[in-house]
Write a structure and sequence with these properties.
- The protein is mainly β and 278 residues long.
- The protein has 2 domains: 5-175, Beta-galactosidase, Chain A, domain 5 (Distorted Sandwich), CATH 2.70.98; 181-276, Immunoglobulins (Immunoglobulin-like, Sandwich), CATH 2.60.40.10.
- 1% of the residues lie in helices and 47% in strands.
- It contains 1 helix and 25 strands.
- The chain has one helix at 273-276, and strands at 5-7, 10-12, 19-21, 25-29, 40-43, 48-54, 66-68, 71-72, 75-76, 87-90, 98-103, 108-114, 121-126, 145-150, 161-163, 168-170, 173-179, 186-187, 191-198, 201-208, 212-220, 224-232, 238-243, 253-259, 265-272.
- The protein has a 6-stranded antiparallel beta sheet, with no helix packed on it.
């Protein structure tokens, strides 16, 4: 009944000497299309990323440069259509414990959840919509993106992990696909949430990694303005439109919560109206 799977990588040093280690997982993904769609959005909850490498035609700074995310010098880099050449980056500081992506052409997404304490290393790589090098890596010129994770912060030697004799390092991460909610704003192992503003209405989406019943609640600082019983599964996501309450200013925040029947929070996300307006 569950759509998620669990990965538990572990490396051990069985020798009598210390060993320097780089240890990562990497998934190569397209999200329901033969090749990576320019309409793909990368969701990485951070304000800055650290460039590992960047192609010469992408107009981005080079190795070890820190740049703002998702918007850098007016370009929204979370949107793949704005990648002119390859880019790989690390995430030095995360504000949450998930990464993901959404393909607006196929209405499919993916989520990876993890512990920042166990696996603080996060990396994204993709070729760029017009990179000529992709043909050297795929037989038919199709593209993909790479979601990396692990206990090292970067690939550089100063971030190697040293395993003493008999020591080991490992972590647990969860992955699941989801569909039909029109984007991704927040996720944990149980659920993925989207909240978008369309003129005077909120578009609310919820996808779960297993069948769940519960209550969807929307609140402003002043009041609860929406509550509905919902039943959600990986095959049947929840999507609805809710009017924005009158009197709210751009500085006001809106929270969306998915609760069990007993009031336990399954997923919760809060954002200001100004952020929703983009």
């Amino acid at each position: 009944d569950c759509a998620y799977f669990t990965v538990r990588p572990r490396a051990e040093n069985p020798t009598d000497r210390s060993a320097r280690v780089q240890f990562w997982t990497n998934a190569m993904v397209t999200l329901g299309s033969h090749s990576l769609s320019p309409s793909t959005e990368f969701v990485y909850p951070t304000a800055q990323v650290l460039v590992h490498s960047a192609g010469p035609d992408g107009g981005l700074p080079g190795e070890r440069s820190m740049i703002s995310w998702p918007v850098w010098e007016g370009r929204d880099l979370s949107r793949y259509e704005n990648w002119g050449d390859w880019l790989g980056f690390f995430v030095p500081q995360f504000s949450d414990e998930f990464v993901g992506a959404y393909n607006y052409d196929t209405d499919l997404g993916v989520v990876r959840t993890f512990s920042r304490q166990e696996a603080p290393g996060v990396k994204l790589f993709a070729w760029g919509v017009s990179s000529p090098l992709v043909s050297e890596y795929t037989d038919d010129g199709s593209q993909y993106f790479e979601i990396w994770g692990g206990p090292n912060l970067t690939f550089w030697p100063e971030d190697d992990i040293v395993l003493q004799p008999g020591d080991g390092v490992g972590w647990t991460e969860h992955w699941y696909p989801f569909q039909g909610i029109g984007g991704l704003d927040y996720a944990n192992r149980q659920a993925a949430v989207t909240l978008r503003l369309d003129q005077s209405s909120l578009e609310v989406g919820l996808a779960t990694s297993a069948p769940r019943g519960g209550v969807m609640v929307l609140r402003s600082a002043q009041e609860e303005f929406f509550r509905q019983q919902v039943s959600v599964s990986p095959e049947a996501p929840y999507l609805t439109t809710v009017p924005v309450p009158s009197g709210l200013t751009p500085q006001d925040s809106i929270s969306i919560s998915f609760l069990t029947a007993d009031g336990e929070v399954v997923a919760s996300y809060e954002v200001s109206l100004s952020a929703l307006e983009g």
